[in-house]
Design brief:
Elements: H1 12-29, E1 42-47, E2 50-51, E3 56-62, E4 72-75, E5 78-80, E6 82-85, E7 89-93, E8 101-107, E9 110-119, E10 134-135, E11 139-141, E12 152-154, E13 157-160, E14 165-168, E15 173-176, E16 182-185, E17 190-194, E18 201-205, E19 215-218, E20 226-228, E21 230-233, E22 247-251, E23 257-262, E24 265-267, E25 272-276, E26 280-286, E27 289-291, E28 298-301, E29 323-326, E30 329-330, E31 334-336, E32 343-345, E33 350-353, E34 356-359, E35 364-367, E36 372-375, E37 388-392, E38 399-403, E39 413-416, E40 424-426, E41 428-431, E42 446-450, E43 455-459, E44 462-464, E45 469-473, E46 479-484, E47 487-489, E48 496-499, E49 521-524, E50 527-528, E51 533-535, E52 542-544, E53 554-555, E54 558-561, E55 566-569, E56 574-577, E57 590-594, E58 601-605, E59 615-618, E60 626-628, E61 630-633, E62 647-652, E63 656-660, E64 663-665, E65 670-675, E66 680-684, E67 687-689, E68 694-696
């Protein structure tokens, strides 16, 4: 048997493994200190703190990454890349698209916010040299920048003078800025800015708001002054020295100026879109769009009013939604177009028409409180004039004359003093006038006043809301011609005031009654001497007063009163056949008033009772003197003729009269009285009652 002997020490391999295990255990028990966290970045300053895109900016601080890519730099959120980097300094360029705001630096997800950097617009290289702001030799400004880029920037007043012409090519874009910046012609200089529909010229502000720059002013008569296919915005910063008004485009020389404005867009300006001074000449004006200006689309003087055209757009959104019309004399023939906004006459005085004025259908004319439209001149009421006013509308498109404010008596009215056959008011609405007299001699305010020897045709027209009468025919020689189918309503006095011999100018188809404070025709006594007259029955009475000299109406011609007529007489008034100078002169006048049972003719006093008016005097021997189916009451207030007579009817000087089927009552004297012998009365079927002296004198 063999015995194995145990070795007193471990084997070599076991020993080595034991050493390795001990080493590993010792390693696990030993620990190292951890690396410290990096400090967050901080921004203490930036230099410069403002500038345009591309400006080099130095950022000072601490704990920046020394790698240019280890720092995230932003200008108000727009990233930028560092040019160089150290732990305390970063150099960077302002990136494209940057806007004003705080600058930030981010390192290892830690962000530091620095001061605000103000991004400025880079000064362009196309700024006009304002040291050379006068153009004295003809010059052309070309379209030098591609597309919609600005070609020129102007920050001063550019004056074109010395007969030079500045031509601006199609497509040019000019930005303006400053109190006096703009384009101005003077001393013969001219401005020709003519674009086209596909390539307009643009005059705009450096920012898109009203009043950034002054405007374009024509102060010369250069034959090529013209704006065509020009877009003009943001002007009206300061007022013109010539007009004292703000406006984007002005013809503004004190002496005179000339220019054309065609197919332009004039919008978003302070003041007026266009302002034309009184001595200027607007040669062409059409196809323009004038909107969103602070005042009126156009300010213009009366003498130039016919220059505005209906192809232009004058709304919406202008601060004053009307054409502002300043006071002047219209001394050249003119036609007022129908525009989408009214013409407003803003000055408190008469606007004088000394030529042919035509108003197109649909036009609206508004008047300030003291303004009027007056034919003739200021120095004389009845000067010879060939002026005319032709306002012919249609049923669908009437012409409107009204106050700038609503209500009666808000302006003076329309005054005629010419006998032109072109004086016509047809399909018009005339309202709110009659605030005061129009002519020096006229003391009766009205919507319409006829003065001197004027002639006016009025048809299908509404005349309303006068502060006094609807119409006044002031002078005895004035005349309404072809007065038919009108409506006179809601006037503060009578619908019409006229003279006795003008009664046949009124027609029964017109409405006289509705809403008038005095529902009667106001008749001033006068002599019917030149023409026979027939008086039509109206829906209101004729109220007859004495003439200005105190005389009652005298009749020297044939007077016919139609059935249904109502005549009311003031206390001292009446009707006399005869001559104002003598009782018994040869007289061919006649008085024929033949009513019907259904439509009697009524002669009465304004107030009821005995003797409230003078009565009817007959002193002619014609067989035409005839009263039938009449009601005559309240006459006999006083002596009719120089020789006497007092009653409802007084016959004088071998008068002849037939009276039948009449009611003759309430006389202050006789029902029928006679003066002298030889009168012939044919009387039958009459009714007499309550006559103070009796029914028929001598019976």
């Amino acid at each position: 048997m063999i015995l194995l002997k145990r070795h007193p020490f471990p084997s070599k391999s076991v020993f080595l493994l034991s050493l390795l295990f001990l080493f590993i255990q010792c390693g696990e028990d030993d620990t190292d200190d951890p690396a410290p966290d990096p400090e967050p970045p901080a921004v203490t300053a930036i230099n410069p703190s403002s500038g345009p895109v591309g400006t080099e900016v130095t950022i000072t601080g601490e704990n920046f990454s020394e790698s240019t890519t280890g720092n995230t730099i932003q200008f108000n959120g727009t990233p930028a890349i560092a040019k160089s980097a150290s732990a305390t300094t970063l150099v960077v360029y302002v990136p494209a698209g940057a806007t004003t705001g705080a600058l930030t630096v981010t390192v290892n997800n830690e962000t530091a916010t620095g001061p605000v950097f103000t991004v400025e617009e880079e000064e362009p290289d196309n700024i006009f040299n304002c040291d050379e702001n006068e153009i004295s030799t003809s010059t052309t400004w070309e379209d030098v920048a591609a597309g919609d880029a600005v070609d020129y920037v102007i920050k001063c007043a550019i004056t074109i003078n010395n007969d030079a012409l500045l031509t601006i090519a199609p497509g040019v874009i000019i930005q303006f800025e400053g109190d006096e910046s703009g384009l101005f012609t003077s001393d013969g200089g001219g401005l020709k800015a003519v674009g086209n529909e596909d390539n307009p010229i643009k005059f705009i502000g450096t920012s898109a708001q009203k009043g950034v720059w002054k405007g374009v002013y024509f102060g010369s008569t250069h034959p090529e002054n013209r704006l065509e296919y020009v877009e003009l915005m943001h002007a009206g910063r300061t007022a013109s020295a010539q007009s004292d008004e703000k406006g984007a485009v002005q013809l503004s020389r004190e002496a005179n100026s000339r220019g054309s404005i065609v197919n332009c867009i004039i919008e978003d300006n302070d003041g007026y879109g266009v302002f034309i001074t009184e001595d200027s000449e607007l040669e062409a004006f059409s196809g323009n769009v004038i909107t969103n200006n602070a005042l009126s689309p156009v300010g213009i003087f009366f003498g130039q009013l016919g220059l505005l055209d209906a192809t232009s757009t004058y709304a919406p959104d202008n601060g004053q939604e009307y054409i502002e019309v300043r006071r002047d004399v219209l001394d050249t023939d003119a036609t007022l177009s129908s525009l989408e906004v009214p013409f407003r006459f803003v000055e408190n005085n008469a606007y004088f028409v000394q030529s042919a004025m035509t108003v197109e259908a649909g036009a609206i004319l508004e008047f300030a409180s003291g303004s009027a439209l007056r034919l003739g001149n200021q120095s004389s009421d009845c000067s010879l004039t060939t002026a005319s006013l032709m306002a012919v509308g249609t049923e669908e498109a009437p012409i409107t004359f009204r106050g700038a404010t609503e209500g009666s008596g808000s302006w003076l009215g329309i005054g005629f003093n010419s006998s032109s056959p072109n004086n016509q008011l047809i399909h018009c609405n005339i309202s709110g006038a009659g605030a005061a007299k129009i002519y020096n001699a006229s003391h009766e305010p009205a919507n319409i006043v006829l003065q001197c020897e004027s002639r006016v045709k009025i048809q299908n027209t509404t005349i309303s809301w006068s502060g006094k009468h609807g119409i006044v025919i002031h002078d005895e020689d004035a005349r309404l011609e072809e007065f038919v189918d009108n409506t006179l309503t809601d006037n503060e006095a009578s619908p019409i005031a006229l003279h006795f011999h003008q009664l046949d100018q009124l027609d029964a188809s017109t409405v006289y009654e509705e809403g008038n404070v005095n529902p009667y025709i106001n008749v001033i006594g006068s002599v019917l001497a030149d023409n026979d007259m027939t008086v039509a029955a109206l829906e209101v009475p004729y109220r007859i007063s004495v003439a200005n000299n105190g005389r009652i109406p005298y009749v020297e011609r044939a007077l016919t009163i139609e059935p249904g007529v109502v005549m009311e007489f003031e206390t001292s008034s009446g009707i006399k056949l005869g001559n104002p100078g003598a009782d018994c002169v040869d007289n061919t006048g006649s008085f024929n008033a033949v009513g019907t049972v259904e439509s009697p003719i009524i002669f009465k006093g304004v107030s009821e009772g005995q003797g409230t008016w003078q009565g009817i005097g007959i002193n002619s021997s014609t067989s035409l003197n005839h009263l039938a189916f009449c009601e005559i009451s309240g006459g006999g207030a006083g002596q009719m003729y120089n020789a006497g007579g007092q009653g409802n009817i007084v016959m004088q000087c071998e008068a002849t009269l037939k009276v039948e089927n009449c009611v003759i009552i309430d006389s202050g004297g006789w029902g029928i009285d006679f003066v002298n012998n030889g009168n012939t009365l044919d009387e039958s079927d009459n009714t007499f009652d309550n006559n103070t002296s009796g029914d028929i004198a001598g019976q």
